[in-house]
Amino acid sequence: MALISITDYEAHADQNYSDKESDRTQINTFINQACDYIITRTGRTMDVVASPLQTVEIFSGSEQRAYWTKNAPIINIVSIEYYSGTQDGGWYDVDDENREWTNDTDGQVYFQDGTSFHKGLNNWRVTYTWGYILISEVPNDLKRAACLLVDSYQFDHDHQGIKSQSDGEQSFTYDKDTKKAMNEAEEIIESYIRY
Predict the structure, then answer these.
(1) C-beta atoms surrounding 195 within 10 Å
(2) N or C, fewer C-beta in 10 Å, the chain?
(3) What is the DSSP letter of 50?
(4) Judging by beta carbons within 10 Å of its beta carbon (0-12, 13-18, 19+), is residue 129 exposed, middle or buried?
(5) pTM for this one?
């Protein structure tokens, strides 16, 4: 499911597409494109899901104090495990008292006591559930970025890049500044990129 609904976009654009099925179809296509762009640009999956999704991620420790998951938001950390690398060893569950995540929108995992993720190759495993259960849980700035992208796609579709046109004695200049909207959307999206 997308980060915004057509109703969200209608409110943003101050439009009603309920009686225009072809427009609704086109807007829904643009909404999906905008959400795909956000996922690709941030390198993270942020999605509205019917029920929480469980994911297991294995990563290499490098003495960092935090790990950014590939999916967000985190609903619950099921386990954080460390691989010791010894012959008799395996995956060891890290003490529950030390587990914590910053909040449910950014997907950051860190230890409350300041412990770092010990250095090693693929030596950490985190299992967690994630996803926005309701579209109303999606942060407003992320919704705005998606709406601005849809604006840009809609403008490009309607005007095919034409900034102005003349028809005999009449001349039209389109005042929509898609570059400004795209810059604002990019600024918002960049705040969700995790390295």
Answers:
(1) 4
(2) C
(3) S
(4) middle
(5) 0.75
C-alpha torsion 71→74→76→80, nearest 10: 60
Q: Give, in order, the Cα–Cα distances in Å from 5 to each of 51, 85, 144, 192.
A: 18, 47, 12, 20
Nearest to 193 by CA among 17, 41, 9: 41
Q: Kindly list the domain boundaries of the chain, sorted by start residue.
A: 6-46+135-190, 53-130
- The CA distance from 104 to 73, in Å, is 5
Start-to-end CA distance of the chain, whole Å, equals 25
Q: What length does the chain have?
A: 195
Q: Assess contact for 64 and 108: CB atoms under 8 A.
A: no
Whether residue 55 contacts residue 107, with contact meaning beta carbons closer than 8 Å, is answered with no
